[in-house]
Specification:
Distance between the termini: 18 Å
Strand order of the largest sheet: 6-5-4-3-2-1-20
Number of helices: 12
Structural class: alpha/beta
Number of strands: 20
Number of domains: 2
Largest sheet: 7 strands, mixed
CATH class of the largest domain: Alpha Beta
Radius of gyration: 22 Å
Strand content: 15-25%
Helix content: 25-40%
CATH superfamily of the largest domain: Ribonuclease Z/Hydroxyacylglutathione hydrolase-like
């Protein structure tokens, strides 16, 4: 019987799209399954040009944007494809966190394949499904508590919580017949739950793993500043304290740590924090899993919910409507507010009419290039209304130097960098570094 082996179905020399297949004898486990952020996707699909809902696998396979694997996809998703449907040959899927590039393709998988996910991640996925029209498939869902274990055939998987820019992020210790494989998922140690990451790293080192599959988003050239969440707070405090106008902020809607930072900064500055309906729904759904001090709709002082003008409101929006505020109210109370507004809702600025000089806090990653379309559109709107741009963000990923230090600390027999455009940046790390090839299989006995 063949020993453990790794097959890399995504996340190879690209950011996002991590898809790791771990095989051990007859057992086959998949870790994460989402689309990549590779520019290659946007060579064929952009804006409203997307894979057809009636034949998603066929349309993605046409450009090698999905792995061609038997016994993985549902019969419905395979409609029209030259890949025939066969009974599942993957026995479990483990999801590290709720970002789209790790979970966004779950609905394409055969519905009989079990999906293992952390408690907090499952609540966030539920909130996304109910408010965004997304779907993750009707699988048998197995919810793992922090530190929980699951056995699939002869392989045991232990879920270890880590810090990331979305709650519930999980790394995995995968115990095979030959030893432990460590899969980090996405992680950092400079956020509010950095202690969880450090506990995971210590546990991983104790395993003396035969392989470390490690994300490397910030490996290689990375001009972004190493700002912590506390550093973001200091910057936002300065901006709010230096202006008597409305302040507007754009941030990742599911980064609850950032939401908490912005809420606390607003309250400390004597302002109210105004959030969109979708954010209010997320916070209400996550509920008990919110970090200490996080804003809670309906009970946190200084928190308001913004209501865009619409003809019809969805069922999930209705619980927040009675106490919500609109553009006219924001315009009247402008200097007392910090307004959360993402790019897709910038048309609200036409009704709000912010004063020239109003600070705009961009609390997200910088664009990947100067040709980033969304970035150009954002600045067109800011220039039109005379808003002042301020970049204030802490990454959800460990820095390049931190990654090398962590790799040395864990001391795995072999290191496989994924979720990175620069796997070669790990070569200075201790151990045997193997930049994987897409679709290639690596028997772990040979390392």
């Amino acid at each position: 019987m063949r020993g453990p082996r790794l097959r890399f179905l995504g996340g190879v020399r690209e950011i996002g799209g991590s898809k790791l297949l771990v095989e051990d004898g007859p057992d086959r486990l998949l870790f994460d399954f989402g689309p990549s952020f590779s520019p290659r996707f946007e060579e064929f699909y952009v804006n409203f040009l997307q894979p057809r809902s009636t034949s998603p696998v066929k349309d993605l396979l046409e450009f090698d944007l999905l792995p061609r694997v038997d016994g993985l996809y549902s019969a419905e998703a395979l409609y029209g494809s030259d890949l025939r449907h066969v009974p599942p040959e993957v026995h479990g899927v483990f999801v590290s966190h709720a970002h789209i590039d790790h979970a966004g393709h779950l609905a394409l998988l055969d519905p009989t394949i079990p999906v293992y996910v952390g408690e907090r991640t499952k609540r966030i996925l539920d909130a996304i499904e109910s408010s965004s029209g997304g779907h993750y498939g009707d699988h048998p869902w197995h919810v793992l508590p922090p530190g929980g274990r699951a056995r699939v055939g002869g392989v045991e998987v232990e879920a270890r919580p880590v810090d990331h820019s979305v709650p519930g992020a999980t790394a995995f210790l995968i115990r095979t017949s030959e030893g432990t494989v460590v899969y980090t998922g996405d992680f950092r140690a400079h956020g509010p739950r950095g202690g969880e990451t450090r506990e995971f790293l210590a546990a991983a080192a104790r395993e003396r793993p035969i392989a470390l599959v490690m994300e490397g988003t910030r490996a290689g050239p990375d001009p972004r500043p190493d700002r912590s969440e506390a550093g973001v707070r200091e910057g936002v405090d300065r901006i709010l304290g230096g202006s008597r106008r409305l302040a507007v902020v754009s941030h990742y809607p599911r980064d609850i740590d950032r939401l908490t930072t912005l809420y606390r900064a607003a309250v400390a500055a004597g302002r109210e924090f105004v959030i969109p309906l979708k954010t209010a729904h997320l916070l209400a759904t996550v509920g008990a899993d919110l970090p200490p001090g996080a804003p809670v709709p309906g009970s946190s002082p200084g928190l308001r919910v913004y209501r865009r003008t619409k003809k019809v409101y969805y069922r999930w929006e209705r619980p927040f409507l009675d106490e919500s505020v609109d553009a006219a109210w924001v315009r009247e109370h402008a200097g007392e507010l910090l307004l959360s507004l993402d790019l897709h809702h910038f048309a609200e600025l036409i009704d709000i009419r912010p004063e020239a000089g109003t600070p705009f806090i961009h609390s997200m990653s910088e664009p990947f290039s100067e040709d980033d379309v969304d970035d150009r559109v954002l600045h067109n709107w800011l220039d039109h209304f005379g808003l002042g741009f301020c970049q204030m963000h802490a990454s959800g990923h460990a820095s390049g130097p931190e990654l090398l230090e962590i790799a040395r600390h864990i001391g795995a027999r072999s290191l496989f960098p994924i979720h990175t455009e620069h796997p070669e940046a790990f070569i200075p790390a201790a151990g045997h570094v193997v930049p994987p090839e897409l679709g290639a299989t690596y028997p772990l006995r040979s390392f």
